[in-house]
């Protein structure tokens, strides 16, 4: 059996490494979502069974947004901290659908929000369309 050296790199809180030429990812899975406008959102969920520590890292259009669990009426919701002069963002889940929206207040989920992307989870084994194959 041939062994390969393992090089480890920490990027954005995730542990990544290379074993030979094959990338290795250790930690929570990256969950791909296909958005209605063709974009791909990649989401990493962490501590999902503990609301106090649950978080999501949403990457869309080359931008990564760190979010913490937030109150919601239905489904699951994560919300970012707003930088000065900026609006917080929210990632809301209902079943297989995720919605990224502007969330001006902690309670904005009970009123209209400005939707930025509506996406559906890509399941492994689903029909390939080229974009999803690159994210498996």
TrEMBL record:
This is Lysozyme inhibitor. SUPFAM superfamilies: YdhA-like (SSF141488). Keywords: Lipoprotein, Membrane, Palmitate, Signal. It comes from the Bacteria. Residues 33-103 form the C-type lysozyme inhibitor domain. InterPro entries: MliC, MliC_sf. It comes from Allosphingosinicella ginsenosidimutans. The lineage of its organism: Bacteria, Pseudomonadati, Pseudomonadota, Alphaproteobacteria, Sphingomonadales.
